[in-house]
Amino acid sequence: MDNKGLVSIIMPMYNCAQYIADSIDSVQAQTYTNWELLIVDDVSTDGCDQIVKEYAASDPRIRMLQNEKNSGAAVSRNYALREAKGKWIAFLDSDDQWLPEKLSKQLDFMISNGYSFTCTDYRIQLNGQWQPYVITGPKVVGKWKMYNYCYFSTITVMYDREVIGLIQIPDIKKANDYAMWLRVVEKAKCYRLPQCLSYYIKHEGSLASGSKLKLIKRHYILFRVGMGKGTFMSLILTVNNLFWGVLKKLFYKKKIR
After folding, report:
1. Per-residue pLDDT tens for 234-245?
2. Pairing mode, if any, of strands 190-202 and 7-13?
3. pLDDT in tens, 50-94
4. CATH code of the domain containing 172
5. Angle at Cα 27 formed by Cα 164 and Cα 166, nearest 5°?
6. Per the structure, how many domains does the chain have?
7. CB under 8 Å to 67, separation ≥6 — which residues?
8. Residue 119: in which H helix or E strand, if any?
9. Which residue segment(s) compose the domain that 95 sits in?
């Protein structure tokens, strides 16, 4: 049944011609069909915009928006969030994929329990190789736990826009999705649906790539610029984030047998 409300799927896109078709195909394969896919082209140069136009020509649920200049994922997501019409907001990056029952199962989980903000488990493919585990997380993530660490992937999240409202992300180049969840969790706790329903495709050149030093800098900027914390507090939160990040890697993986 598709009468649970419209799901607006937010997808920023930049130079992903190699992956975008698989991402869109995974949306079109959803068993829950009441969705709109808003793809924001960040002035791509590899022809991925033409691929999206072909999909949109045959499926009116797909809409491509275009930035006037290359602006980054935060600006692209903000644009799509302002244009979204759905009660439910979900996110999928242009090189990642969902399993066919992702939307259906997550909506059932939210509606049956009265949840406004949820995430699911996910699996990682790194440079073409599937990792032998599923990434899990805490059953519930509230405000303080969210400051400890970003325990879920953006592509697993769904929230009720009627409860959360319009979210706009700070214009920082990295970890802007984390900044978004720090805002959303002010309105509602995040509940985990313990099923693997998303595939996170990591590859060289992806936003997730980078050294540990860059990761530290990224999180400092998140707290200092994105969240407006003072210098000392931003340092404390960054160190705290590193500590809980190590624990996440130790305790929130489920081996695939």
Report:
1. 999 999 999 999
2. unpaired
3. 999 999 999 999 999 999 999 999 999 999 999 999 999 999 999
4. 3.90.550.10
5. 15
6. 1
7. 40, 41, 42, 43, 75, 76, 79
8. strand 117-126
9. 7-208
